[in-house]
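[09:14] KT: can someone run the structure on this one? pasting the chain below
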Amino acid sequence: MGKLFLSIIILVLFQSCHTYKIVDTKAADLIVGEKYKIQRNYKIYKYTVKSLNDSVVTVKKANSEEQIPTNEIIVLGKRKFSIVKTIALIPVVGIAVAIIAWIADPNINIGSMDIKF
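[09:31] RB: done, structure tokens below
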């Protein structure tokens, strides 16, 4: 039960408070230093744009840099902070913890209330 609890907490806490909004695939609209989700060759990658010109976008992922031809970019998503995800995360974590605690011990004492099923 402890491993399940820890796994759920880790999954919830590692959810990003950011979302990726689909933008026009023109490389001229990219901003150097911003993070983007780029779909090319039918795979999706998350990159930070380092530099760009008319035909090539230089991006950084982890510790390596890569040059992507603009004609290979199929879908482009710009990273955007999501206030809704951030606000929703707090009650979801609280409810998940309460449910898991109740599953672990159905006779749990919450404050001054004794809950027994």
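[09:33] KT: thanks! The chain has two helices and eight strands.
[09:34] RB: yep, looked fine to me
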